[in-house]
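#lab-general

N.A. 3:47 PM
ok so I finally got the sequence cleaned up, no stray characters, all 593 residues accounted for. can someone with queue access submit it? mine expired

B.Y. 3:52 PM
send it over

N.A. 3:53 PM
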Amino acid sequence: MILNKQLWCISRFIHRRGICSAETMSRVIVSTDKDEIMIELSINGKAKCLNRKCQETIGRTLERLYVTMTKVQKKSKSKKAKMEVSTESTEKYKATLLDQSNNQIAMETAGSEAWKVASTLKINDENFEVLYNMPKVSTLKVSSKPLVSVPVYPFISFKNAVLNFTKFTWFRRKLDNLDDMKCDNDENEVSTSWHQISEETVYIPKHEDIGCLLKVVAIPGNEQFPADTVKNLPFKIAETAKAVAPGPGTTLFETIPNLKDFLSSQSGIRLVSYNILADCYTSTETAKVDLFAYCPSEYMSIDYRLGLIFKELKTYNGDLIALQECDQFIFKEALVPVMSIEGFAGAFALKGQSKEGLSVFYRKSRFQMIAAENCIYGEAFKDGEVEEQIQNLLRHNPHLREKVHRRGSCGLVCLLRDKVNGEYLVVANTHLYFHPRASNVRIIQISILLHAIQQMVKRGEEQCPDGKKVSYILCGDMNSFPTSAAMELITDGKVPGNHTDWWSGGGIEHPGEGQLTLKHDMDFTSVLGSRRYTNYAAGFYAHLDHIFMSSQSLTSTQILDLPLHEKVVENTALPSEIHPSDHIAQVVDFEYI
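B.Y. 4:20 PM
back already:
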């Protein structure tokens, strides 16, 4: 009951402040979806919806509308049993559709064409304003745990709407007044309950917001129906479940020594590679009592961690963002709407039967996505989509072959076109198998990925204008030390047959030195070299995250330092109150040679 009163009060407040105005004419809202048309209107105060095929004639559609309206009107006048209304009758047929010039649209016109040009629907003596493909908010949510200095994004999805033409209005009210909220005819009581605080798309809570609930009102718009100028557009409301809390203060990435200089001297293209720690792993009993027992549950929750992740990504101001351990539902419900607001589009690759995978986001003002492929290593091998040298290597070793098959690890390989100079760029993001005794599997996985990158480079070369190069980048959580065989294969173009990593699974999985001929002819160089660590959990830390790029066409211009070590271990390990993951984001600037 309280929630309904809140919605009613906000609605009145919005209308009185001019965000929306009172309706002057009944409306019929027409929406298209594939081969269907949905028609919504109110008859005698009752909302009615009619679904028709796009190719159905408008005459037939209007006939059905008239029949529906007649039934409703007769039922409202009488409590008698169901009344039969003939759908074949033309004597009572009084429904017409008028175009922008007030001319009647021919009855034989297909509905998909008729509604596009319609302005008024006349049924008997009642006129309905036709709104075709009106902008609509499909879903709207906000973070349930807002924190001071941490951006609160509207998790929004649209239909027939564009972000630039949509209006957002933020309100706040003290939590201790929630149960006493009153809604009467006094506007002052409404406005003192909820205070308007911002009309920005994203709101960053301030110290004075502590103890307050936040509410956002989203009015969708598009070029035809801008939210700022068109009256009567529908709106949606979302509210935080909890009041604004103080937050962590200074977060871990904000302690990076060269952060300010790095951010102020951005040059070329900025790449962010970040394992954000999947929620499907932190919510398990093993994570709570073993892996991350040192981290309080409130800081492990995805609602808390997402806010810190968004703040960090926004601060870095990257052009390319490669994320690992990205939950599928987080990608769809949170990352897509948030990154869209920040001007990004992206692709997602699911790891086999897992709930998480990889994502690559690119700034739309800088890049255009040409192609994206999910290379699931085990499936690629089974489907024969790998080089013959890998097939030969595993053909006579069923133990290693089965081990590779069972893993759901994958690589997301994207082909992008740079809008600034027309260059083509392949960006590959991966998360290799984690097990400490599976270095041999990681060699195979990275070899399969390198082959996929080569194929995408060839695809780019076919589309590239004369003289343009196809550059390439490989990044991600590779669960490998810089000296591992998998990393050597990337930078050296081959892996020696006597490398100890081939023995990581024991002699039964060793393919035999005579079979070890894995190689490639790309020119990768390591950007990060060897760092103290990129992952820091209790009892284990190592350099596991890497960035490689083509040495003949790309060069790094600056690399973001690691955060202060004393802050990393301030709360035992990562994640913690001040950091959302057990990994540290790797951020570099690069440019074309």
